[in-house]
Amino acid sequence: MGTLYEMINVILTEWRKPMLHGVGFGYAVSKSRLALSRLKASPQQARGMFSFINDSEQDGKSLVALSREALRGLGKRDDHVTLHLPFLPSPAGSKNTLPVQSTRLPLGFETLQKTAVLEIDNPSARNALSGNMMAQLADIVTLLEDPKVHDKLNVVVLRGTGGWFCAGADLRVARDELNSREAGAAMGALMVDTLTRFRRLPLVSIAAIEGGAFGGGAELATACDFRIIEGNAVIQFVQSRMGVIPGWGGGARLYKIVGRQNALRLLCTTERISPDRALQLKLVDEIFFATDEESSNTGITSFVEAFDAIVPGSIWLPCKSSKV
């Protein structure tokens, strides 16, 4: 195994097998199968446990499917990812029967007719994603893939609650549940699959960054077509401080957005990227200023409105077929 610098270089320049949407997860995973079991930790919460059994015939898709179910339920009872829509989809009219929380658009977005708002809600942990939230995010992307849903939309806005975007993976869950490199790779496979499918949606995706986007949260932002940032927010790829590389495909996406040299510098130095610096790097498209939730919603909607006005179904971008 090389240095962390060399590992980041590989992520920015090469793909390794087994492949999932063009992203590799290393040979340890290519000869393994994810086995799922449940351990009752308390009357209120079931905990998941990952174990790997040698099986060279299992592919990345099997890994993703089992990872989603293994992660479901891992986290606090009040953390969730919610999809807000300008309409309420009829369960009978959709082929998807998923445990997706779906409500009307939040206050301040009422003027938008063809925009969905996807909110990450775990404010006590700066909206870090628990295992359960990762599974919910995958469910929501599956719902948005349904033509009965996305044909009525132009835009999906990804944001966090409580004035914070996302602090990446919830390290408490990672510490307690992902007790091997293989298990961590399984979580990474699920998130790469989810974010790749998210990028391929026939919708304009916009990350509205407030507070901070750290680690995996910064990777989430790179999965969107556009990024707007509040004037006091910060973006930081902190993974190398922890001795790891971006595990959700964010390194390759960052490379495509800011170029190889800038991506390598941001990943290796863990630079705290200010709004002005992010705009200079073309990592973000616009800066907005907010002092409360109302002004935040105003800043977001002012950027979204032009896309919301497009005739539904007219959006097609070649980049939607990209690997990451």
From TrEMBL:
Biological role: Decarboxylates ethylmalonyl-CoA, a potentially toxic metabolite, to form butyryl-CoA, suggesting it might be involved in metabolite proofreading. Acts preferentially on (S)-ethylmalonyl-CoA but also has some activity on the (R)-isomer. Also has methylmalonyl-CoA decarboxylase activity at lower level.
Name of the protein: Ethylmalonyl-CoA decarboxylase
Coiled coil ranges: none
Catalyzed reactions per annotation: (S)-methylmalonyl-CoA + H(+) = propanoyl-CoA + CO2; (2R)-ethylmalonyl-CoA + H(+) = butanoyl-CoA + CO2; (2S)-ethylmalonyl-CoA + H(+) = butanoyl-CoA + CO2
Enzyme class, spelled out: lyase
EC numbers, comma separated: 4.1.1.94
Keywords annotated in UniProt: Cytoplasm, Lyase
Family annotation (PROSITE patterns): ENOYL_COA_HYDRATASE
An annotated GO cellular component: cytosol
Species, as recorded: Phytophthora nicotianae
Chief place where the protein resides: cytoplasm
GO molecular function: methyl/ethyl malonyl-CoA decarboxylase activity
GO annotation terms (biological process): fatty acid beta-oxidation
Top-level taxon of the source organism: Eukaryota
Family per similarity comment: Belongs to the enoyl-CoA hydratase/isomerase family.
Stored Pfam families: ECH_1
Cellular compartments annotated: Cytoplasm, Cytosol
